[in-house]
Amino acid sequence: MIFTRITWDQLEKDTIALAKKIGKQNIDEIVSISRGGMVVARILSDLLDLPISHIAIESYADLHQAKEPIVTQVSPREFKGETILLVDELADSGKTFLRGISYLKELPIKSILTAAPYIKPHTVYKPDYFVDTLDSWIIFPYELKETKEAFTKEFGTKKKAEEKMKELGFADWEV
Predict the structure, then answer these.
(1) Structural domain of residue 174, as residue ranges?
(2) Same structural domain for residues 87 and 163?
(3) Domain identity same for 133 and 167
(4) How many Cα atoms sit within 13 Å of 112 on the Cβ side?
(5) Span 56-75, mean pLDDT?
(6) Across the strands, what pairs with 90?
(7) Residue pLDDT, tens place only, 46-62
(8) For residues 128 and 41, what is the distance between their CA atoms, to the nearest angstrom?
(9) Are residues 102 and 148 in the same domain?
(10) Least CB-packed of 13, 38, 72, 173 within 10 Å?
(11) Per-residue pLDDT averaged across 112-132, rounded?
């Protein structure tokens, strides 16, 4: 398996590039797909001067996709007549975006746009706005514990997991 580590600097740079691609749209609110989309949504909120709501959609376990995505938390807002920007950090299979769009279409919204800094080449759903296509397992800077636990399971020991993290450029204090 090939891994790509995204640093905080890279994530910020790519999210700024994403905001530039989105530009001046008539968007009323960002809806973040929790958890991964929250950091990207927060940066976009600042750059695009938009409020944020969120929905939680779960579909992963360890390094492998587990099941069909399910909505586990919803926004109390109805977004009546609003244009929503649905944001996640990655369109991997695309199923999470499709589930989020399906949920939002049940509400009386005006329209939905979608954005993620990264997509996979095999995604079944390509967001309206994205920055880069990566064909590897992506490790985000806010996934330190999650990565170490998944690597321990994948590589058999805590020591091998730590070695792999260091090989990918993680500092001792991160491991």
Answers:
(1) 143-175
(2) no
(3) no
(4) 20
(5) 71
(6) 118
(7) 999 999 999 998 875 55
(8) 15
(9) no
(10) 173
(11) 97
Percentage of the chain lying above the pLDDT 90 cut: 83
Residues 127, 86: one domain?
yes
Task: Give the pTM.
Answer: 0.90
What distances in angstroms separate CA 167 from CA 2, 16, 36, 127, 136, one per listed residue? 12, 28, 24, 32, 16
Domain count of the fold of the chain: 2
Please compute the mean of the pLDDT values over residues 98-108 and round it to a whole number.
Answer: 93
- Cβ-proximal residues to 57 (8 Å cutoff; 6+ apart), any chain: 33, 34, 69, 70, 71, 72, 96, 99, 100
For residues 68 and 49, what is the distance between their CA atoms, to the nearest angstrom?
33
In Å, how far are 3, 95, 102, 105 from 92, measured between CA atoms? 14, 8, 17, 21
Average pLDDT, integer, range 72-81: 83
